[in-house]
Design a protein that fits this description.
The structure is a single chain. By secondary structure, the chain is an all-alpha fold. It folds into two domains: about 80 residues, Rna Polymerase Sigma Factor, Chain: A (Orthogonal Bundle), CATH 1.10.1740; about 55 residues, Winged helix-like DNA-binding domain superfamily/Winged helix DNA-binding domain (Arc Repressor Mutant, subunit A). About 75% of the residues lie in helices and about 0% in strands. The chain contains eight helices and no strands. Helix 1 packs across helix 6 and helix 2 crosses helix 3. The N and C termini lie far apart (about 50 Å). About 20% of the residues are buried.
Length: about 160
């Protein structure tokens, strides 16, 4: 596969991951650009015997994001206020308002979780990775990944139910 086909195939997923990890739309665009720049440089070194392409891609994406925040000394990975504009694209006013409110609640609850749990939940639910793929990206064991997901989802439920 040449890089332009790779880019076309994975752009939306990489951008969605960057949006999940960024504090705003401009930062998400910058992260997406940095991720694809790094992927372009490493594209010829991809080895399908070591990992499948998606695991390789999101391992690089995760490392680019970590390096970006380390370099910029940014500790907060989430800001719900900058996403309100993105989330409020109206289709039907009543439905959009309810959807926006639900998304605000979810993002607010997610912001209360530790960064590692947010990252793992993002890979699981935003990117559709299974526990084995998440383990390969994060360097955790598959069983540890499952436990973290289970506990993080339980925390989210408790937060959303107002128990925390």
């Amino acid at each position: 596969m040449d890089f332009s086909l790779f880019y076309d195939k994975y752009f939306q997923r990489v951008h969605a991951y960057a949006c999940y990890r960024a504090s705003g739309p401009q930062e998400a665009d910058e992260l997406t650009s940095l991720i694809f720049e790094k992927l372009f440089k490493k594209f010829s070194s991809f080895n399908p015997e070591k990992a499948n392409m998606e695991v390789w891609l999101f391992s690089i994406a995760k490392n680019v994001v970590i390096d970006y925040y380390r370099w910029n000394k940014i500790r907060s990975f989430f800001s719900i206020t900058e996403y309100e504009e993105i989330l409020s694209a109206p289709d039907d006013t009543a439905i959009s308002a309810q959807k926006l409110e639900e998304q605000k609640l979810l993002f607010s609850a997610l912001s209360k979780l530790p960064q590692r749990e947010r990252e793992i939940l993002g890979l699981k639910y935003s990117q559709g990775f299974n526990n084995k793929e998440i383990a390969a990206v994060t360097g955790l064991t598959e069983s540890n990944t499952g436990v973290i997901i289970m506990r993080a989802v339980k925390k989210l439920r408790n937060i959303l139910e107002g128990e925390i």
